Automatic annotation (TrEMBL):
Domain Phosphatidic acid phosphatase type 2/haloperoxidase: from-to ranges: 52-160
Keywords: Membrane, Transmembrane, Transmembrane helix
Lineage: Bacteria, Bacillati, Chloroflexota, Anaerolineae, Anaerolineales
Keyword Methyltransferase appears in the UniProt entry: no
Domain of life according to the entry: Bacteria
SUPFAM superfamilies: Acid phosphatase/Vanadium-dependent haloperoxidase (SSF48317)
SMART domains in the record: acidPPc (SM00014)
Protein name: Phosphatase
A Pfam short name: PAP2
C-alpha cells in the first residue's frame, strides 16, 4: 500500500525546493509547539473558555493520535523509499498524521466557536495546507493525512455534541471530585500509551526502516515505540484541567483589560512557560525509565498549572486583568 502512494509524495516534491520553507511554515501550524503557544494566548488574552476548550482538545487529539500510531505502526515515506526526500524529521510512526489530525481537530473546533465566516474559510485553508505540507516534506503518505483529517473531524463532532452534557455534570461536582476525575483521566492517558505498546509483543521495527531513515536524518534516530508522550499529555491534562476548574470556581477566568495589558499578560505568561519547559527540561533526566517518566509528568503538570491558574493569579496581582 505504501509503495502505491510514494508517487504522490514524489509529485509534490517535484514542484521544486522553493516550496520547502513555505511548507515547513504550514507544517509548523499543526505542531503541538504552535498550539501550546496559541492556546495560552487565547486563554489569557482573548476568550478564556475557548482557550479551555482548545486545551481539552489538544490533549484529546494527541492522545487518540498517539494510540492510533502505535496501533497501525506504519512507516513514513522516507523510511521505505530512498527517492522521497526527508525535508523534516520525525521519530514516531506515520499513520495517522498528527499534524493533519491536530489541524482538523483544533482549527476545526475553533471555527465552530468563532462566528466570523472569514475565519472558517481561513481555518479550512490552513487545515488543507498543513496536510499537503506533510506530504511534500516526505513525512506522511496521502493516506496518513486523509485518516488524520477524518479522525480530527470526528473528534470535533463528538466534542461539540457531548460538551453541554459534560458541563452540566461538572457544575454539580465539587472541586475535589473534579480533581479526582481529572487525575484519573491523566492516568488513563498514560495507561493507553503503555498498553498499546505492550500489545506489540515481540514485534520489532524493521531494520530497513531504521537504515533508510538514518541515511536522511542521522541526527534524529527513529524511536516510534517511545511512550513519553503519554506522560506529557497526562501531566498537561492534570495541571491545566485542575487549575482551570479551581480558578473558575474561586475567582473567575481572566478577562478584560486594555490591549497593552493583554500583550503584557501574554509576554509574562509565555516567559513562565519557557522557563518551566526549558529549565526543568535541563534539570530533569530524559531517559526511558520510571523516574524520568514521573518527572516528565510533574514537569508538564507544572506547565499546565502555570498556564491555567498561576499566571492568571500573577496577572491579578499586577492589576493586568479584571
Amino acid at each position: 500500500m505504501e509503495n502505491l502512494q510514494i508517487p504522490i509524495n514524489l509529485f509534490f516534491q517535484s514542484l521544486g525546493m522553493w516550496l520547502a520553507p513555505i511548507m515547513q511554515f504550514f507544517s509548523f501550524l499543526g505542531t503541538e509547539e504552535f498550539f501550546l503557544m496559541v492556546m495560552p494566548a487565547v486563554y489569557w488574552c482573548i476568550e478564556p473558555r475557548l482557550g479551555i476548550r482548545l486545551g481539552w482538545m489538544l490533549v484529546l487529539t494527541n492522545w487518540v493520535n498517539g494510540i492510533a500510531k502505535l496501533a497501525f505502526h506504519a512507516p513514513r515515506p522516507y523510511w521505505v523509499s530512498a527517492e522521497v526526500k526527508a525535508l523534516s524529521s520525525e521519530t514516531s510512526f506515520g499513520m495517522p498524521s498528527g499534524h493533519a489530525q491536530n489541524a482538523a481537530a483544533l482549527w476545526g473546533l475553533a471555527s465552530t466557536q468563532v462566528q466570523w465566516r472569514w475565519f472558517r474559510w481561513l481555518s479550512l485553508a490552513i487545515i488543507l495546507l498543513i496536510g499537503i505540507s506533510r506530504i511534500y516534506l516526505g513525512m506522511h503518505f496521502a493516506g496518513d493525512v486523509l485518516v488524520g483529517w477524518a479522525i480530527g473531524a470526528v473528534l470535533v463532532w463528538l466534542f461539540v455534541r457531548l460538551e453541554p452534557g459534560i458541563l452540566e455534570w461538572a457544575k454539580r461536582q465539587s472541586i475535589r471530585n473534579l480533581g479526582m476525575v481529572i487525575f484519573l483521566a491523566s492516568l488513563l492517558i498514560i495507561a493507553g500509551f503503555s498498553l498499546s505498546n505492550v500489545l506489540f509483543g515481540d514485534w520489532n521495527i524493521p531494520t530497513a526502516w531504521v537504515s533508510l531513515a538514518a541515511k536522511q536524518t542521522p541526527n534524529t534516530p527513529i524511536d516510534p515505540r517511545n511512550i513519553e508522550g503519554g506522560f506529557t499529555l497526562g501531566g498537561i491534562l492534570f495541571g491545566f484541567g485542575l487549575g482551570a476548574v479551581w480558578l473558575d470556581r474561586r475567582y473567575g477566568l481572566p478577562t478584560g483589560g486594555s490591549r497593552e495589558q493583554r500583550i503584557l499578560r501574554y509576554l509574562l505568561g509565555i516567559a513562565g512557560v519557557m522557563i518551566l519547559w526549558y529549565g526543568l527540561g535541563k534539570l530533569f533526566p530524559d531517559n526511558a525509565n520510571a523516574i524520568s517518566y514521573m518527572l516528565r509528568y510533574l514537569r508538564y503538570a507544572l506547565i499546565g498549572s502555570w498556564v491555567s491558574v498561576f499566571a492568571p493569579l500573577l496577572f491579578r496581582r499586577l492589576h493586568l486583568v479584571k
